[in-house]
Amino acid sequence: MQKIVLITGVSGAGKSVALKVLEDTGFYCVDNLPANFLSELVAHLREQGEEQVAVAIDARSGASVAELPHIIAGLRTFGADVRMMFLTASTPELVRRYSETRRRHPLSPTAIGVDADSTPSLIEAIERERDVVGKLAQYGHVVDTTSLSAPKLRHWVSEFVGREWTGLTLMFESFGFKRGIPLDADLVFDLRPLPNPFYDPALRPLTGRDKPVIEFLESVPDAIRLADDIERFVRTWLPAFVRDQRSYLTVAIGCTGGQHRSVWCSERLAKALTPEVPHVIVRHRELG
Predict the structure, then answer these.
(1) Residues flagged as binding site
(2) Which residues form the RapZ-like N-terminal domain (predicted)?
(3) Angstrom distances, CA of residue 240 to CA of 174, 185, 237, 246, 278
(4) Which of 15, 80, 172, 236 sits at 20 to 30 Å (Cα–Cα) from 275?
């Protein structure tokens, strides 16, 4: 079976990093391909014996981007395993990245510098691009790279292509509110009302994966009650997301710093729901 990975999303969010990871793992990679050429490219590479193909598609494809879901459906009728990763980041973070690299945004008519006059045109280009590609997010796995390091993004991309895919993938992602809510979250739960292990000097350097932190939180009745309520909510509504033919459901669990409470709860939820869901992933945004 031919494996096809599509990388899309907003410019500056890490598509080049993702494509390089796939190239290093043996994929035949094509960057900036117009969407309406995808079927022809895949057919040609199939004839050439290429079993793993990765293609980056962005807003420069113009109106043909809207046809991408139909193109993907057509490829799947020929037996191809087609997966899409949608990379995004907050507008302030994208502005910062472009200002640091001084590169031109694909939809910006002029080069972007660091002077204040360039910022409005850059923001307008970013928002225009979101309008063009934003609807594709519902068809793929969304990754918010706002707070991700390049090594962590490379790891997540490798994980993305390294698994068998059947049905819905349920992902629990811990995060710290002080660094913002993940843009890829479908559901968000707040654990900040719970006692914070950070204020115990013995627990401060540990994480929610460590036994002392687990024992601390599981001795708090409200912590168990809140985790059980979240588990009950996800379990109740999971069939509705499956009926909606969702490929991914990302449940974001947040606390202040993303080190103790949210990590503990994400691990607990994943363990509880793994027997019922074929694919469960746990990611901790703030941990190394």
Answers:
(1) 9-16, 58-61
(2) 3-161
(3) 23, 17, 5, 9, 16
(4) 80
Which amino acid makes up residue 100? E
Q: Which residues of 64-78 are buried (b: 16+ CB within 10 A; e: fewer)?
A: ebeebeebbeebeee
Q: What is the pLDDT of residues 195-211, one digit of tens each?
A: 999 999 999 999 999 99
Residues, the chain, total?
288
Q: Parallel, antiparallel, or unpaired: how do β-strands 187-190 and 81-88 relate?
A: unpaired
- Count of C-beta atoms within a 10 Å radius of residue 281: 17
pLDDT number for residue 55: 96
d(CA 145, CA 153): 7
Nearest to 41 by CA among 85, 82, 12: 82
Annotated binding site for ATP: 9-16
Extended beta strands in the chain, E state: 3-9, 28-30, 52-56, 81-88, 141-144, 169-176, 187-190, 248-255, 279-284
| Entry pTM | 0.72
Q: CA-to-CA distance for 184 and 144, rounded, in angstroms?
A: 5
- The answer to whether 224 and 218 have CB atoms below 8 angstroms apart is yes
Tokens 């309406």 identify what position? 36
- DSSP secondary-structure letter at 27? -
- The pLDDT of 142-147, averaged and rounded, is 92
What's the DSSP call for residue 254? E
Query: pLDDT class for 244, splitting at 50, 70, 90?
Result: confident
What backbone phi and psi angles, to 5 degrees, belong to 166? -145, 120
